[in-house]
## 1
Amino acid sequence: MARYIGPKSKIARRFGEPIFGADKVLSKRNFPPGQHGNNRRRKTSEYGVMLAEKQKAKYTYGVLERQFRNMFEKAAKADGITGEVLLQNLESRLDNVVFRMGIAPTRAAARQLVGHKHIVVDGQVVNIPSYAVKPGQVIGVREKSKSLEVIEEALAGFNHSKYPWIEWDNNSKSGKFLHKPERADIPESIKEQLIVELYSK
């Protein structure tokens, strides 16, 4: 199961956003990493801007290059606006849905919960983080995992009304994926059109 295991604060500082979750380093050093990070005045090329946007999307959703490229090609063949379809498909990944439901504090933690068989889809254990959740499916915590401290801490005080495409039931610790989210409802600050332009070159 391939995943990014490199430095996270460094990447977050490069983009100036907490893309891996809350990061204390950003409040102290909100400038790019490296020896000249605070004094860098170099103008980024058009290609560099598009590449940075793609990298930001990859790191945000925890997807590696080949998988991201495959997802883009799939989105390009689907009906609708390619960039929006790409983001909707990324949002439909099981690890992301678990994160959006508040079962895990970060996408990396959600990926780990899925990989360790703590998550069920329609009552069946699914341990593939990239599993594409379909509208109407119910995602929940496995019965014997409901008392896990990491899950209870993540769910405590989480605002489940944040995402209109998810319906949460606190009693059963499960939620229904109602539909793929509209672009306006996805909070990530990703300029998906730049990603489309990059791959179209």
## 2
Amino acid sequence: MAFTLRINGTERSVEAEPDTPLLWVLREQIGLTGTKYGCGIAQCGACTVHIDGVATRSCAMPVSAIGPEQQIVTIEGLSPDGSHPVQKAWVALDVPQCGYCQSGMIMAAAALLQQNRNPTDDDISGEITNICRCGTYNRVRAAIRQAAADGGPARNG
């Protein structure tokens, strides 16, 4: 089946089975490999993208559930040059170790800051449910707080 998707501000046409996860369309057909595969059951968050500004686990989102008017933003579309406040805070505070989960974690953090300009640690813990095998959660919290202080609300694409 043919689907029209708006990804990072660009309209894209793809052919896929209706139950194909958005993750595989993004990675294999569009070539946006910053969104990672982790668990395949929407638990770990490595595949997090924004759909209309909402952090969404793309491994469990069938492509057929995305309307042609909906806006998808991947880590590649968050900022063209890494200047998004969350990305800058991640670098400044050396958040990642292995880095595998970080694109999904950054996308979840950016969506949180879009909704809540000054999240508490409880807010962060409640919204950022991504799993990091390296356990950099304290640095994640610190980076989200820094991004909130430095950049205010996150911006999409």
## 3
Amino acid sequence: MHVKHFLTSLIVLLQVSNGLPLTFSPVDKKGIVRESTDMNIKFSAQSICADSTVWKLGSYDEATGKYFITAGGVEGNPGRSTTGNWFKIDKSGEYYKLVFCPGVCNFCKVICKDIGIHIEGGKRFLALTDTSPFLVFFKRA
């Protein structure tokens, strides 16, 4: 396994404890988070890093064959230049799953996949998947 390639960007790690709270910002700016609607996801906590805490789809990683979810995205400004910053929440049985399938650009060709877990070096990273979506439930912070 190649872990050193992860050091070049801020990849979103999955933590077993309560972790950091997230903020969901819908594209329509009405403040109501609806299923299957484009939204930005960001960590609500302060960061000592210069990068934004908004989630985005990282570049394709050839070593793993994955697209990882990273920080450093742009909040708002829907359109062609920000397609990598938009995610959706879809119902999956009694749980929910996070999905990357942005609809903020009507003429853009985008990847549409669930977000799952990729384990490497004993760490769990969020990445796009075809097979095993990471199922979640939500609670208010």
